[in-house]
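Annual report, structural modelling task.

Input specification for the iron/sulfur cluster complex:
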Amino acid sequence: MRLDPASSGTVTPDPAALYQAQYAGRPAEGILADAITHDFAGRIALVSSFGAEAAVLLHMVAQVDRATPVLFGDTGMLFPETHAYRDRLIDRLGLTDVRIVRPNPVALETGDPAGTLNAVEPTSCCFLRKVAPMQRATSAFAATITGRKRYQSPTRADMDVVEADARGRLKINPLYGWSTQDLATYMRRNVLPAHPLVARGFASIGCAPCTTAVTAGEDQRAGRWRGSDKTECGIHFENGRIIRTPAN
Ligand code: SF4
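The model returned the following structure:
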């Protein structure tokens, strides 16, 4: 609950808190069914990188409504295998509204004309190529669905099923409590194809210049921006706290 600033002491419901109470502890499939067909019908999109674990959530969303908008951030630096995998999953799942989110070409020409910004200012590069375009794309929706999970990194360890961003839009994380074993079981049960780079040791897949394979025992995201302190795409505010923007 929060105080309504437009009134004198009137208490109005906080949407994030309301949906958190409604969704917490429920199976991911039920959360998605309610969110897509009822709670945010016509006002919700899935944000997907078509990365190592993306097939699970894409499959679940397709079971509810194959026409759900899917926002795919194409930074211009992705692996060709990711493009091929995206096309394969679109075909396999029958997705009908996958939208390619690209950087603003003018901003790109000004900010990274040689395509080398990632080597000197990766956070600026992420903002230019991913964060800003995705902020524009998601502004058309009241809520987005993400595939983020608590186990992925310490910065995600206390993530809730529902979060609010600085603009008041909700992020719904139906898989927040899932483990790698849960994901593997779901992939197997539904005969979902793996991203081609998984077999080569890539556990988390982002842009080609900033992603390497991991070795046994390493953190799942150890191959992202290896050798630097950077672990996520950027920094912004959520629920009044400074947090790092997920790279997915
Ligand atoms: S992951 Fe690397 S190449 Fe991709 S947007 Fe971020 S810094 Fe740029």
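Residues 1-8, 235-248 have pLDDT under 50 and may be disordered.
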